[in-house]
Write a structure and sequence with these properties.
Blueprint (H helix, E strand, L loop, with lengths): L20 H9 L4 E5 L3 H10 L3 E4 L3 H4 L11 H14 L4 E5 L9 H13 L5 E3 L5 H12 L4 E6 L18 H16 L4 E5 L3 H7 L7 E4 L7 E4 L1 H4 L17 H18 L13 H14 L8
Parallel strand pairs: 1-2, 1-8, 2-3, 3-4, 4-5, 5-6, 6-7, 7-8
The structure holds 3-methyl-2-oxobutanoic acid.
The site of 3-methyl-2-oxobutanoic acid has 12 residues, from strand 6.
């Protein structure tokens, strides 16, 4: 685990302007690294806001990080919308992207546009993300963009279809597989995606692809040549058990702190050291006497506590 440097400068909240699509393009042009993180609730959104990140993704990874599913496949659109609404309420400046869950966009262009609209209208998202660069995903991306909603693509390891990809593992490790990722990324760009996520592909493959992409590329396990990086909130802060994928860097170990905090509370309750006098409320002595008298009138059998 790396230790958090104490001299990190967080941009002053009031001076930061909301992130926009032109600003993202400008960041790419000026080679300013773009920072993206996932969030799933109000506290994680507030943390992202206060840390000054550029993009926040309400990822379908929330299926696993906060909803306890084994994979991203079972999560329902309505479940992700609840998370996205909570995140929206916690954000002012980052650009908010909602992740279209498995089964909510593949069936038809109409289904994809309707789902994307719910993320925008009900949850206040600025854009949506969908997985895959095959003909179906490209057609859906094109349809959503045509409906006026910005779309982020996602190629390489696409967890919603990881069974078809042979498991949860790095992609593009042969020339043929790397070529497929190239074709998919270019097709998504041509379909109008404003940005593309590269997940778990060799750094050298990402580097070769970069000169061909004029939209910002956000990497997760794609090396340093891309325009920005994304990590899952719970992975980077150590809120979930296990080591996670190779690309995860842990910046904190909050799960240990959470367990220690709850254990200390449980100890104090059992020990009767919590609550202390400072955690209680007082009542004027005369009011208390009055209350006792009324209580005794209603139930003369009850002895007064002294
Ligand atoms: O759901 C998610 O968290 C994602 C990121 C890993 C890009 O898709």
């Amino acid at each position: 685990m790396s230790t958090m440097p104490t001299n990190i400068q967080v941009p002053a909240d009031a001076s930061r302007l909301p992130m926009t699509l032109p600003r993202l393009i400008e960041m790419k042009r000026h080679r300013e690294p773009i920072v993206m993180v996932t969030a799933y609730d109000h506290p994680s959104a507030r943390a992202a806001e206060q840390a000054g990140v550029d993009l926040v993704l309400v990822g379908d990874s929330g299926a696993m990080t906060v909803l306890g599913y084994d994979s991203t496949v079972p999560v329902e659109l309505d479940e992700l919308l609840v998370l996205a609404k909570a995140v929206r309420r916690g954000l002012r400046t980052p650009f908010l992207v909602g992740d279209l869950p498995f089964g909510s966009y593949e069936v038809s262009d109409e289904q994809a546009v309707q789902t994307a609209m719910r993320f925008v209208k009900e949850a206040g998202c600025d854009a949506v993300k969908l997985e895959g660069g095959g003909s179906t995903s490209v057609a859906r991306a094109r349809a959503i963009v045509a409906a006026g909603i910005p779309v982020m693509g996602h190629v390489g390891l696409t967890p919603q279809t990881s069974t078809a990809l042979g498991g949860y593992k790095a992609q593009g490790r042969s020339a043929a597989a790397a070529n497929r990722i190239a074709r998919e990324a270019l097709a998504l760009q041509e379909a109008g995606c404003f940005s593309i996520v590269f997940e778990a592909i060799p750094s050298a493959v990402a580097e070769e692809l970069m000169p061909h992409l004029h939209v910002p590329v956000i990497g997760i396990g794609a090396g340093p040549s891309v325009d920005g990086q994304v990590l899952v909130f719970h992975d980077l802060l150590g809120i979930r058990e296990g080591l996670g994928a190779r690309f995860v860097k842990r910046y904190a170990n909050l799960l240990d702190e959470m367990v220690a905090g709850v254990a200390a509370y449980a100890h104090d309750v059992r020990d009767r050291t919590y609550p202390g006098p400072e955690h209680g409320y007082s009542i004027d002595e005369a009011e208390l006497q009055d209350f006792r008298a009324t209580l005794a009138e209603h139930d003369p059998g009850v002895a007064h506590p002294v």
